[in-house]
Design a protein that fits this description.
Radius of gyration: 21 Å
Strand content: under 5%
Order of helices and strands: HHH
Shape: rod-shaped
Structural class: mainly alpha
Number of strands: 0
Distance between the termini: 12 Å
Largest sheet: none
Helix content: over 70%
């Protein structure tokens, strides 16, 4: 494993981490629109439906974000391991 493998690992880690950050920003944006209110008036049913849709989107992002965290960590640790292994074998 040479410099090409290390470059590939670091590039992959960078792409995964950028996607993770974008997902976190999107979830944060959704969270700012999420209001914790109870809508009792039938006239506010549209608002309640919209809030349920936002909450559902936020919940759906949970697993992919966790997976991206794990993938980012694994790629980073693998890249560090390859870098150390390559440095010690010079």
């Amino acid at each position: 494993m040479g410099h090409a493998a290390l470059f590939t690992l670091m590039a992959s880690w960078g792409v995964v981490t950028v996607i993770l950050v974008l997902m976190l920003i999107y979830r944060s944006t959704l969270s700012t629109h999420d209001e914790e209110q109870i809508f009792l008036d039938p006239a506010e049913k549209a608002m309640a439906t919209r809030q349920q849709a936002i909450t559902q989107k936020i919940e759906m992002l949970g697993r992919p974000i966790a997976a991206m965290f794990v993938l980012s960590g694994v790629l980073f640790l693998t890249a560090v391991g390859v870098w150390l292994w390559h440095g010690l074998n010079l």
